[in-house]
Amino acid sequence: MSRRIEIILGPTGVGKTAYAIRRALECGSPVISCDSRQIYKELCIGTAVPSEEELAAVKHYFIRTVPITENYTAGIYEVQAMELVNSLFAQGHETLVMCGGSMLYIDAFCYGLDDFPEVPLQLRQHLMECLRSEGVEVLAEQLRELDPVSYGEIDLSNGQRVIRALEVSMFTGEPFSSFKTRRFKERDFEIVKIGLERPREELYDRINARVLDMMDRGLEEEARSMLPYRELPALQTVGYKEMFSYFDGECTREEAVRRIQVNTRHYAKRQLTWWRRDSEINWVSLK
Question: What span, in angstroms and rounded, lies between the C-alpha atoms of 219 and 214?
């Protein structure tokens, strides 16, 4: 198969952007982002969007293209990314470089997603407010009553996953688990996954330093500008949630920074746990 997609993946802070740009320049390819946060126009510092120099070095797609108010999903990304790569292949590209750390976006592109129904934004916003005011345990108990199968399968500490299963169950009257078929879609090109890794302490040091750099570059101001949109799904993410807690007087600025560092390290660990189960990934150690 002559057409090939190289997916550069790995934990946050490992160095995916620089590696992908080097590989794209070698292949004569653009970089196709598969990052669920860098796609939003209004988010830049807290999402570690590539620098102006990096964006100028090679053409990037799916970077700051979607308004934060838009209900953008992995399913939409799958459709748009497939349209893009088919167009690029038609232009004569043989190898394309994709880069990102969003597990669901990568899976959507590689395998396709189950055909879940769209849920009204008002219901999702209501559940997000319940999550914030009552905690994930209350929502998880509702999910247990509506869909005990999903209750037993998903990470109940992950509010976003609980809300996704619960909103589908509430809106359709059918269990979220009943929509899961896992019929993988065939792709007419080769997919090569390249996973980047570093020694744990080095990775954690890089994460800690990057958070401090984000603060120096204005993460606090960026987060303040997002306060009117704080209930949107795009902002239920590391970096912004902790700053919102600081603005609410729930912690000091220093504590908010520490929480961002800790939660980012936890996210990196979850990413690695997810990908360690994928035997198709070719791991490259960056030391």
Answer: 6
Helix (H) or strand (E) holding 194: strand 190-197
- Decide if 229 contacts 69 (C-beta within 8 A): yes
Is residue 110 within 8 Å of residue 187, measured between CB atoms? yes
Structural contact between residues 62 and 77, judged by C-beta atoms closer than 8 angstroms? yes
pTM of the predicted model as reported, rounded to 2 decimal places:
0.82
φ/ψ region of 12 (left if φ > 0, alpha if ψ in -120 to 50, else beta) reads beta
Q: Are 135 and 108 in contact (CB under 8 A)?
A: no
Name all domains of the chain by residue range, CATH numbers in brackets.
4-115+186-197+279-285 (3.40.50.300), 121-179 (1.10.20.140), 200-272 (1.10.287.890)
3-state class percentages of the chain: helix first, strand second, coil last, to nearest 5: 55, 10, 35
- Is-contact 72 266, C-beta < 8 A? no
List, for residues 13-26, the tens digit of each pLDDT value: 999 999 999 999 99
User: Tell me: the pLDDT tens digits for 231-249?
Assistant: 888 898 899 999 999 999 9
